[in-house]
TrEMBL record:
The lineage of its organism: Eukaryota, Fungi, Dikarya, Ascomycota, Pezizomycotina. GO terms for molecular function: acyltransferase activity, transferring groups other than amino-acyl groups. It comes from the Eukaryota. Coiled coil: none annotated. PROSITE patterns: GNAT. It comes from Myriangium duriaei CBS 260.36. It holds the Pfam family Acetyltransf_8. Residues 38-184 form the N-acetyltransferase domain. This is N-acetyltransferase GCN5.
Amino acid sequence: MAHRSLNASSATAASSQQSPILSVAPATGPLRSKVLALNVLPDQAVFVDSMAVVLKSIDDDPFSEPMAILTNETSSSYHEAVGFYRLDARQDAIGERDFGPGTVGLRAFLIDARHQGKGYAGAAITALAGDLRLRRPEVRRVALSVNLRNERAQRLYERCGFVAESELYYGGSSGPQTVMILTL
């Protein structure tokens, strides 16, 4: 299985430390059981379903691809799953809006509770963008929606280059959401 390793040197503008080196890969085979063990912090559970629910919904959706976020910073944790995201190829996957060809939806993005605060989220967005450029060069934009109450995630996405659309999405199960676009 090929993992794409990318150094996310610009993941956090204020950080002078070396950014983590992450790889991303489809969460199939042995990686599926690794991502199944991922959990978010209790206060984040309102924004993302459990991995069992997410993976089941992906199994039922031919337009979705489960992706593992992996780190290889130490030999003892080589290719340890530290996060997850779902790519959704349906044109109206995000906010029930049609962003047209060349757009993929980013859903269920998470970093495991044990690995938060290490710079992995920003590095994962950089790795995700690099992976899409290599594996799916037809993709030019990534769309996502983020709950208005999830200010921490909104700031992360903005730092990573996502731009908020002016119109909110009101169909989210936990309240209004901002729709954001990253141009690759």
